[in-house]
């Protein structure tokens, strides 16, 4: 059985909710990623409170006329964060992404620590053509 841990991109990094968006964007550039999970620095377990994408920064901050040096990652986090366990099977991963129409999914271990992220590119490398077509249809519909 293929699990989330098998298909994820390992080594994902958190940014604290207090981090400014200009720094988040710089970190995205350095890491060559389009999204970063956001942790709640007031939580001693550093639990995820959301995820910020490059698109969020452009649409939710820059295009809205806000200064990314003054807006934080936490300011953009909305809704309930979605994630999957590292031992989840591929069907569970796809269900979570499809049901929530998300393109990136953080992966956590048994201690609730971030261990990776699954992106569309990761899915493309590990799914059959039929599975990938169904995913694209569900998420982009």
Automatic annotation (TrEMBL):
SMART domains: CBS
Ranges of residues in domain CBS: 8-68, 76-134
Classification via InterPro entries: CBS_dom, CBS_dom_sf, Diverse_CBS-Domain
Annotated Pfam families: CBS
Keyword tags: CBS domain
PANTHER family reported for this sequence: CBS DOMAIN-CONTAINING PROTEIN, CBS DOMAIN-CONTAINING PROTEIN CBSX3, MITOCHONDRIAL
The protein's name: CBS domain-containing protein
UniProt lineage: Bacteria, Bacillati, Actinomycetota, Actinomycetes, Kitasatosporales
């Amino acid at each position: 059985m293929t699990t989330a841990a098998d298909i994820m991109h390992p080594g994902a990094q958190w940014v604290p909710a207090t981090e400014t968006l200009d720094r988040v964007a710089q970190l995205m550039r350095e890491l060559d990623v389009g999204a970063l999970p956001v942790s709640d620095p007031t939580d001693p377990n550093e639990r995820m409170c959301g995820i910020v994408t490059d698109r969020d920064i452009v649409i939710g901050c820059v295009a809205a006329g806000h200064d990314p040096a003054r807006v934080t990652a936490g300011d953009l986090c909305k809704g309930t964060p979605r994630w999957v366990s590292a031992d989840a099977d591929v069907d569970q991963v796809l269900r979570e992404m499809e049901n929530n129409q998300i393109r990136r999914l953080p992966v956590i271990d048994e201690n609730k620590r971030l261990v990776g992220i699954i992106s569309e590119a990761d899915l493309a490398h590990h799914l059959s053509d039929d599975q990938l077509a169904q995913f694209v249809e569900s998420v982009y519909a």
